[in-house]
């Protein structure tokens, strides 16, 4: 099994952090992983994306033009990457910042009002953890326990309150996926 996950959005939305978190969780499961970030020169507000490859065998190339899954956080990213998702793949969309639904019929599409959920639950800075939680709960690409065991390592050096807020934001996403998808 080898799957590539593309995460794309504006710089400052936590796009690259989603990729790092997913990479760490997969490594905890003993999977082979690669992480390739890409961002514009202006970072915050510019474009950002990353490709995470997760495999139970050797990864021949960390790059792909056709990821199996995509997490899309804004409209420009949907416009740019919708057609690259493999047929039969998964596309998770932040409907708070994407004003159209994907038009493809050969992929599974899941949308969530990410910014609204983040505000309602008081996690304005943890929106990326919400969409990550929903994505993992829906796809099972990594085990939820692996993610739960990653918070302390990923947030090493951060205050306990920051770690707990991100953990709670992640669980909001898990719960959203279970109840709505």
Helices and strands in order:
Layout: E1 2-10, H1 15-28, E2 32-39, E3 47-55, E4 69-72, H2 75-81, E5 90-94, E6 108-112, H3 114-120, H4 127-139, H5 144-148, H6 151-154, H7 160-180
Parallel strand pairs: 1-4, 4-5, 5-6
Antiparallel strand pairs: 1-3, 2-3
Helix pairs in contact: 3-4, 4-7
Explain how this protein is built.
Helix 4 (127-139) crosses helix 7 (160-180). This protein has 181 residues and is of the alpha/beta class. It contains 7 helices and 6 strands; from the N terminus they run βαβββαββααααα. Strand 2 and strand 3 form a beta hairpin. The chain has a 6-stranded mixed sheet with strand order 2-3-1-4-5-6, sandwiched between helices. 39% of the residues lie in helices and 22% in strands.
| Low-pLDDT segments, ≥5 res | none
Main beta sheet:
6 strands, mixed
For the CA atoms, what is the radius of gyration? 15 Å
**Overall average pLDDT:** 92
Number of strands: 6
Number of helices: 7
Report how far the terminal alpha carbons are from each other: 24 Å
Shape: globular
What does this entry show, briefly?
Helices cover 39% and strands 22% of the residues. The protein contains 7 helices and 6 strands, in the order E-H-E-E-E-H-E-E-H-H-H-H-H.
Summary keywords:
6 strands, 181 residues, 6-stranded mixed sheet, alpha/beta, 7 helices, globular
């Amino acid at each position: 099994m080898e799957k590539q996950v593309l995460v794309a959005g504006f710089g400052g939305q936590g796009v690259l952090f989603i990729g790092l978190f997913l990479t760490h969780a997969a490594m905890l499961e003993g999977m082979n992983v690669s992480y390739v970030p890409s961002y514009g020169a202006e970072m915050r507000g510019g474009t950002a994306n990353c490709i995470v490859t997760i495999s139970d065998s050797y990864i021949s190339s960390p790059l792909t033009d056709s990821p199996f899954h995509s997490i899309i956080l804004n409209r420009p990213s949907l416009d740019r990457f919708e057609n690259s998702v493999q047929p039969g793949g998964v596309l998770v969309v932040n409907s708070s910042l994407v004003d159209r639904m994907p038009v493809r019929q050969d992929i599974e599409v899941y949308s969530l009002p990410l910014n609204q959920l983040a505000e309602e639950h008081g996690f304005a800075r943890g929106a990326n953890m919400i969409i990550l939680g929903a994505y993992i709960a829906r796809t099972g690409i990594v085990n939820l326990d692996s993610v739960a065991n990653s918070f302390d390592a990923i947030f090493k050096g951060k205050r306990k309150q920051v770690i707990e807020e991100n953990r709670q934001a992640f669980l909001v996403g898990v719960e959203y996926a279970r109840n709505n998808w």
